[in-house]
Amino acid sequence: MDFNSSEPAAGQALAEQPVAGQTFAAEPVVGPRSEDELPDSATAAVKVVIVGGFGVGKTTLVGAVSEIRPLTTEETMTQAGVGVDDTLGIERKTSTTVAMDFGRISLNKELVLYLFGTPGQQRFWFLWNGLFDGALGAVVLVDTRRLEVSFDVIGRLEERGVPFVVAVNSFPDAPTYPVEELRGALDLPPEVPIVNCDARLRTSSRDVLMTLMHYLHGLAAAGT
Amino acid sequence: MSAAGQEWEDESPERLYVITGGRTGAADTFSLDLVTLIVAKTSPRPGAQPEHAAIMRLCHSPLSVAELSAYLKLPVSVVTVLLGDLLADGRVVARAPVPPAELPDRSLIEAVIHGLQQL
């Protein structure tokens, strides 16, 4: 064995693989792991949007149910989409791109569900156009310590006609309210489901998606 | 230079401009959704633009536009332009997402519910 070798051990070499590239051409593109590849039978995809304020647990929820490690896609703020005033309104933010985390669930051989987490603040609504077009529905993830973000989001979803359910992420130090009190506080119509969840748990996050799907099924059955 | 100018420099728009040949996203051609699945029909052509070749390699199995954007580390709007080229040349095919309409379809929702139950 050559103790003086400058070659890194195999494990080290793996750990030093580039993870975040700034220049495209300089680095090889790392694609999905082979076990993350979709079968060729995958012919159709649907999407659900998880929307909420920063730190409310969107990515946690996505990661809890996703079959792949959540990925990040970035969208650029264009001058056409956002006025100068809006850009200046982002305090101390120097980036002009916004990241969206997303995950994936293969529902069967043909059908794939994608879950996108997107920030709820008004200044990020420029992301919503491509995101909500064709989306089955949305989950509004709520932190009871910061309900104010949810008001705007709920109003905006109602305007766009996007069906949604409200999921309250149970943070240990967050105050808990009876569901009906929250419904009043958020000014939600009686038919919109509100559920409590722990976004860290697969079963709990899955149940949130189930609640949305049963709600959508009811809407479809009612022909609304 | 204003703070706003600084932002753009940080994001290196020149690089993105070069990759797309100065074209911006959402050109008339194809309507690509974040979850449109892209599949390569052929191998990358020798001498193809590196970004085109990278897409072709990634799409040997179906991959959504969003996943392509994530793996290529390029904005969705840029990926869309590149895919437009490849679609026009018939080098990749797009499997459109469902539902294209506003109304959720009951049987589709039932398929989703059934799939989630397997989790």
Shape of chain A: globular
Strands in their spatial order, largest beta sheet of chain A: 2-3-4-1-5-6-7
CATH-assigned fold name of chain A: Rossmann fold
Taking the sheet with the most strands of chain B, its summary is:
3 strands, antiparallel
β-strand percent of chain B reads 5-15%
**Which residues of chain A sit in consecutive blocks of at least 5 with pLDDT less than 50?**
1-24, 79-95
Total strands of chain B: 3
Got a strand count of chain A?
A: 7
Strand arrangement in the largest pleated sheet of chain B: 2-1-3
Helix/strand/pairing category of chain B: mainly alpha
How many separate domains of chain B? 1
Q: What is the gyration radius of chain B calculated from CA atoms?
A: 17 Å
Helix/strand-derived category of chain A reads alpha/beta
Helix content of chain B: 40-55%
**Count of runs of 4 or more consecutive helical residues of chain B:** 6
Give me the strand/helix succession of chain B. Answer: HHEHEHHEH
Largest sheet of chain A: 7 strands, mixed
Please, could you describe this protein's structure?
Chain B: This is DUF742 domain-containing protein. Chain B: It holds the Pfam family DUF742. Chain B: InterPro entries: DUF742. Chain B: It comes from Streptomyces olivaceiscleroticus. The complex is a heterodimer of chains A (224) and B (119). In chain A, 29% of the residues lie in helices and 22% in strands. Chain A has 224 residues and is of the alpha/beta class. Chain A has one domain (33-222): P-loop containing nucleotide triphosphate hydrolases (Rossmann fold), CATH 3.40.50.300. In chain A, strand 6 (164-169), helix 6 (179-186) and strand 7 form a beta-alpha-beta unit. In chain A, helix 2 packs across helix 7. Residues 1-24 and 79-95 of chain A have low confidence and may be disordered. Chain B is mainly α and 119 residues long. Chain B has one domain (3-117). Chain B has helices spanning 3-10, 13-19, 50-58, 65-72, 76-88, 106-117, and strands at 37-40, 63-64, 92-95. In chain B, strands 2-1-3 form a three-stranded antiparallel beta sheet. In chain B, helix 4 crosses helix 5 (76-88). The termini of chain B are far apart. At the A-B interface, strand 1, strand 2, helix 3, strand 3 and strand 4 of A face helix 1, helix 2, helix 3, strand 2 and helix 4 of B.
